Each structure stands twice: as C-alpha cells, then as structure tokens.
Amino acid sequence: MQNFALLKRLGSVKRPVLLKRGMSSTIKELLLSAEYIASHGNDQIILCERGIRTFETATRNTLDLAAVPLLNELSHLPVIVDPSHATGRRSLVRPAAKAAVAIGADGLIIRFTLARRRPGRTAAIGADRYSRLCGRRTRLLRPVAWRDRHITGR
Question: Is 100 exposed, middle or buried (0-12, 13-18, 19+ CB in 10 A)?
C-alpha cells in the first residue's frame, strides 16, 4: 500500500487489479491506494479484505467484517473477502465466508492446499471442482463485474 512506484505502474496497465488490504493498513489507506491507481488511468480495481493484525493469537489475523459494508458505502468498487487468509484455520473458513456474504461481500477468495496430490503447493480451481471436493454444492455469489454501483445506489 505504500509502494507508490508499483501503484503508479498498476495505474498504467489495462487489466483488473486486486488490491488487498495489508494486515496493518487502515481502510483509509486502502481507499487512498485505490484512488492512486485510478488517478493513473486504471479504474478496474477490486478491493480485498483479508484480515488485520490484532492482539488475538488464536487466528492468523482478525477478519474485519465491518470493513465490507463500510467500503461499499465509501466506494463504488467491488469488495471481496479472503476468509482463508484472515483466519488461517480450516474450521473457520466456511463460517467466515458465510458471514462475508451476509454482510455484503461481492465475492470470495478461498485458498486451500491439495495436500494429497501436491504437498506444499497451492492450487487454484473453479467453483465446480471446489463443489465436488467439498462434497456439497456451493452457492455462487453474483459475479464481480465492472458495474456502475453509483448508479444503482449500491
């Protein structure tokens, strides 16, 4: 969030940017970073909440769920949540993901390792394969699109 040369470069590319909030960053710093990217020409920005550092030691970070509706209120940009990074505990990912959806997240990033197939390597898979691996159907969120949220009032 403080690497201005990188943020400036991201502003010049014509590809979507996933801007993840740092564990010690404020909401204001996240929004100012997004604004810096946009001011250099790239308005395809997705904000990502993935937990902040607190005094709690039971989880990797503390998922700041209040940030989601606040970011929706303060910005027209889509907001996604990474519950796997925020909690760092497998048992907490599903409830944290449900909470993120309930509070208004536009999407989720759920990271996991296929330990039996590729020890120590993370794999990205689609929703269908994720559903099969979980043994149950997952409810997909509405797609994150470059919609005009300021027009729709969201």
Answer: buried
Higher pLDDT, 93 or 124: 93
- For residue 16 the two structure tokens come to 């979507």
What pTM does this model have?
0.76
What lies within 8 Å, CB to CB, of 60 at 6+ separation is 51, 85, 86, 87, 88, 89
Closest of 127, 154, 152 to residue 141, by C-alpha: 127
Q: Which tokens belong to 76? A: 């027209």
Bridging pattern class, strands 45-49 and 17-20: parallel
Give the pair of three-digit tokens for residue 60: 């990797």
> How many whole angstroms separate alpha carbon 50 and alpha carbon 81?
6
Please write the tens of the pLDDT for every residue from 53-66: 999 988 899 999 99
Per residue, the 3-state secondary structure of the chain, as one string, reads: CCCHHHHHHHHHCCCCEEEECCCCCCHHHHHHHHHHHHHCCCCCEEEEECCECCCCCCCCCECCCCHHHHHHHHCCCCEEECHHHHHCCHHHHHHHHHHHHHHCCCEECCCCECCCCCCCCECCCCHHHHHHHHCCCCCCCCCCCCCCHHHHCC
